[in-house]
Amino acid sequence: MRTVILVYSRRGRSLAMARLLSAKCGAEIREINCPRYDGPLGRLRVWGDIITRRLPEISVTPDIGPADLLIVGAPVWAGQLAAPLRRALQQAERLPPIVGVFVTRRRMGFSTLIDPDLEALTKAGATPNKPMPLLTLLRPEHHVERARKGIEVFCKTLAPLLERRVAPALTLSFRAA
After folding, report:
1. DSSP string, 47-100
2. Which domains does the chain have, with CATH numbers?
3. Which pTM value belongs to this model?
4. Could you tell me whether strands 80-81 and 69-77 are parallel, antiparallel, or unpaired per DSSP bridges?
5. Which of 52, 63, 72 has its CA nearest to residue 6?
6. pLDDT tens by residue, the chain, 177 residues
């Protein structure tokens, strides 16, 4: 069974947590790239896209390829999943079954904006109509030990799904336009 972690990380925090998660559950990591948010104007473009609800062009390196299950992760921006991950999830019907979500955020706050994203993921998940397992990591650069404990619990929650045998699903490739 091949499980892949699909992660977007603009500043490296979510990628660091994906690496800890990968080490714990044995999943491969595939990173979403979004050149639009690189460079000195990247942060301004992020906020502009949040306000206008624009979803940027992305690519995934290396390609996801055939996989059985998918765990997705990204930072939370203004109460919603980061736009590059939301772009990838637009193709949820062509992705492997999604079994879990992890997010990194600076602080807890108003998060009902993330609910529609989680509902869509639940429909695309390996166990539809059940709540999608969600791991929220606060300020991971300051709480690595707390993050490790959260990841351990998250992996135990996912263990029955990660052990289930399902037919491999072919996935699409994301290419920058």
Report:
1. HHHHHHT-----EEES---SBSEEEEEEEEETTEE-HHHHHHHTTGGGSPPEEE
2. 3-163 (3.40.50.360)
3. 0.80
4. antiparallel
5. 72
6. 788 999 999 888 899 889 989 998 889 999 999 999 998 899 999 999 989 989 999 988 878 878 888 899 999 888 888 999 988 888 766 777 778 888 887 766 555 567 777 776 776 666 665 777 788 877 655 566 777 788 888 888 888 877 755 444 444 455 444
